[in-house]
Amino acid sequence: MTTQELISQDKSHVMQTYGRFPVALERGEGVYLYSPEGRRYLDFTSGIGVNAIGYGDKKWAEAIYNQALKLGHTSNLYYTEPYIRLAEELTERSGLPNSRVFFANAGGEANEGLIKLARKYASDKGNPGGTIITLVNSFHGRTVTTLSATGQDKFHKHFFPFTEGFLHVPANDKAALIAALENTPNAIAVMAELVQGEGGVLPLEPDYVKFLREITESGDILLLVDEVQTGIGRTGTFFAYQGYGIEPDALSFAKGIAGGLPMGGLISSEKCADTLTPGDHGTTFGGNPIAAAAALEVVSRLTPEFLSDVAAKGEYVKERVLARKIPAVAEIRGRGLMLGAALTGVKPGDVVNACIEKGLLLLTAGSDALRIMPPLVITRAELDEGLEILFEVLEKI
C-alpha cells in the first residue's frame, strides 16, 4: 500500500487515539526509516526511546529468530533460561546488591508493579492505604492508576474516578516535599522520573535527587525511580540514577530494553526484594523468551565504552546547538541522548512538520520543547546531518 492508502485504511479501521504525523514507515536500516514509496527519514525519535540499537540489526534479529525456533512462549508457571539470564544481567547492571527483577510488557505495567510493590511493603509494615508522592510534570503511564500518579492536569480528565492515594508536589522544591511529608503521615513512597520526558525533558537537579534519597531513607519511605524512558543507556549510564550517584529502593524499566519488542519490568533492592510473594502479582507475557533473547542482545551492546560515548554524543549535540545561537532556541537540556530543545516564539509541532518535509523525524515534549532521542548507535556524522536540517528549519520558520 502507498502512504495515502495506509492513512485512509487507518482512519476507517483503527481507533483514532493518536495524533499521527502524515508519515507511513515500511522498513528501517541503521538510523534511517523508509516510507512505502522509498522516502528516507533520519530518525531522531527511536520510537520514543525504544529502538536503542537502530533498525535492521542482524544480531538482534538472529537472536529473535533462533529463540523463536526453540520456544516462543510458555506460562510463568515454568522456568526458561532467557529471562533468568536477563534478570542476572539486569541485577548486576543495576548495582543494587541482592536485587530481584519482575518482568512485564510495557512502561505503564512496570509502574503499576512499582506502585503495588510500595503498597504491599507498607501494608506488611502495618501502614496499609498509604500515599505515594509524585512530581508535577511527571508522566507514569496511561492506565487509570498510573494516570493518577502522573502530575500533569491535562491527563486528568474523562476517566474519573481515578485511583486514590497520590499527591503531586513541584519538582526541585525541597520545601514543598518536606511540607508534603509533614502533612501526609501515611506517606509510603516518593516516585520520580529523574529526567521528565513527556513533561518537557526536564532533568531533576542533582542536589534535589540526593535530597530525595536522604529524606526517604530517614523515614523508611521507599524511593521509586521511573526509568521507563531514561533507562537502558538512554542518558549515558545504564540507568539514569547511576549518573546521579544514588541507589533507589526500586525502579521500573521498559522502552529500550528489548530493542523494539514489548518488554518492561521492575527491579527491587534487597530492602523490598521479598515483598511480592506468589499470588501478589503476575502477567501473562512477562519474561517472554523471545523478548528476553532480544533484550540480552541489546544489553550486551551497552558496554562502559558504549555508554560513555552516548554521554559524549549528548554533550556534542548540546555544544552544536549552543554554538549556532538560534534565536528560536531558548535552552537545550537533558542527559545523554535524551535531549530537549526549549523553543520561544515557535510551536514545536510546526517545527516537527517542517523537519518531516526535509527528511528528519523529531518528537515534541511538554508545551514548548522538541525532543531529540535518536537510536543510541547514531554516529556524529549522522547527528550532524540531522542537526543541519533542524537548524535550517529553525532559522527559517
Task: Explain what the structure shows.
- This protein is of the alpha/beta class.
- Helices cover 39% and strands 18% of the residues.
- Strands 4-12-11-10-7-5-6 form a seven-stranded mixed beta sheet, with helices on both faces. A four-stranded mixed beta sheet has the order 1-2-3-15.
- A hairpin with a 3-residue loop joins strand 16 (363-365) and strand 17 (369-372).
- The longest helix has 21 residues, at 304-324.
- It is globular and about 60 Å long.
Give the topology, please:
Elements: H1 3-13, E1 27-29, E2 32-34, E3 40-43, H2 46-49, H3 58-70, H4 81-94, E4 100-104, H5 107-124, E5 131-135, H6 144-149, E6 166-169, H7 174-182, E7 187-192, E8 195-196, E9 202-203, H8 206-218, E10 222-227, H9 240-244, E11 250-253, E12 264-268, H10 289-301, H11 304-324, E13 329-335, E14 338-343, H12 348-357, E15 360-361, E16 363-365, E17 369-372, H13 380-396
Parallel strand pairs: 3-15, 5-6, 5-7, 7-10, 10-11
Antiparallel strand pairs: 1-2, 2-3, 4-12, 8-9, 11-12, 13-14, 14-17, 16-17
Helix pairs in contact: 3-10, 4-10, 11-13
Q: What pattern of helices and strands is seen along the backbone?
A: HEEEHHHEHEHEHEEEHEHEEHHEEHEEEH
Give me the Rg, rounded: 21 Å
Low-confidence stretches: none
Helical content class: 25-40%
Beta-strand percentage range: 15-25%
Q: On the 0-100 scale, what is the average pLDDT?
A: 97
Overall structural class, as computed from helix and strand content, comes to alpha/beta
Work out the helix count: 13
Strand order of the largest sheet: 4-12-11-10-7-5-6
The strand count comes to: 17
What is the general shape?
Answer: globular
The N- and C-terminal alpha carbons lie at a distance of 33 Å
Biggest β-sheet: count, sense, barrel? 7 strands, mixed
